[in-house]
Amino acid sequence: MVPAAVQHEEPREDDELLARVAAGNQGALSELIARHGRGLRMFAARYLGNAGDAEDVVQEVFVTIWKQAARFDPARGRASTWLYRITANRCIDQRRRRALRTFIGLDDVRDEVASQEPGAEATTAARQELAIVRDCLSRLPERQRMAVLLRAVGDLDIAAIAEVMGGSAGSAEQLLVRGRRALRDHLRDHLAMAAEGLERKSS
Amino acid sequence: MTRDEFERNKRRFGDDVGAWPAPFRQEARAFVTGETARSPQDDPDRALDRLVLEAALMASDEQALTHKVLARIDAGRRSTWSSFLPRFLLEPAGLAACAAAMLVAMTLAGYQVARLQDDLQDSELLALASGARLSDNGLSGDGLSGIAADPAAGEDSL
């Protein structure tokens, strides 16, 4: 079972930053980007499978925050949940746009997210494993992938995942359980295939 | 996460790791406890989350991102009104709305032109029915129709 809540303190600092952003303070926006830019970009890049699209989405997200920070109500939820919600919605829009462009032949979509150390992939077993995890993630159904990433990258609890994805806590938990199960199955298949390949090579 | 990164983040976000933003928080926790995605853990879900996080890690430059966001905000502020129409037209919905408006306008214009022509034909047919004759120079007595309203006028012109 998935724990109902993650044990960490509520970073109220973000609420204050959003209030200052709403008042037109660009320094506060920079601070907010320093705190959450990395997480949001990692989430968007892994969800979309395209680093360029993710960069564009995250920029859009912070422009939206600049314009609409006053609409954030701390009484209704955490700031991080609000940020991930905006990002998730932008990602869904971006995916639809990309699908349309691909359908009419304007785009050729490939997984274009650079690893942390480009060119170093496949040099060690650990890196190979991470490449396999990325591949398995891209094979998950979209909503399951989103739930898994919100949990792992955003460190959101079930209630927050449900809020971001616009559903009940029960459905969010189901998505997460199914996503994890599917990811494990994919990983098991991949690793079995890799081991088989190694055995064949050695024999 | 290295010791240097941990110390740097501690200066940025404070001593309380639990209040750090994600994914710095998870990385710091793993650094403090010494656990990795491959080390034995009691909770398999936590191990999988850790593996997904490691797979998602990528180089990121928040300063560059900040510059780009601020540039977008400034550009938007400068051109809110001047570029409203072109930006609106670049959106698929805007393009479709514009095309629909043009279609309606062209249809209405077409009806107007056709109605004027119909009026002309109606008056010609009415004149023909009342016994008028076609004049050779294509002009009738009133200068509008090719039919002479008065049969005698048509004969005079021959």
UniProtKB/TrEMBL annotation, chain A:
All residue ranges annotated as the RNA polymerase sigma-70 region domain in the record: 32-99
A Pfam family that the UniProt record links to this protein: Sigma70_r2
Domain called RNA polymerase sigma factor 70 region 4 type: residue spans: 132-183
Superkingdom classification of source: Bacteria
Keywords associated with the record: DNA-binding, Sigma factor, Transcription, Transcription regulation
Family of this protein: Belongs to the sigma-70 factor family. ECF subfamily.
PANTHER family to which the protein is assigned, alphabetical: RNA POLYMERASE ECF-TYPE SIGMA FACTO, RNA POLYMERASE SIGMA FACTOR HI_1459-RELATED
Name assigned to this protein: RNA polymerase sigma factor
Organism, as annotated: Mesorhizobium escarrei
Lineage of the species this protein comes from: Bacteria, Pseudomonadati, Pseudomonadota, Alphaproteobacteria, Hyphomicrobiales
Automatic annotation (TrEMBL), chain B:
Transmembrane regions listed in the UniProt entry: 88-111
Record's keyword terms, sorted: Membrane, Transmembrane, Transmembrane helix
Superkingdom of the source species: Bacteria
Listed name of the protein: DUF3619 family protein
Species: Mesorhizobium escarrei
Upper lineage: Bacteria, Pseudomonadati, Pseudomonadota, Alphaproteobacteria, Hyphomicrobiales
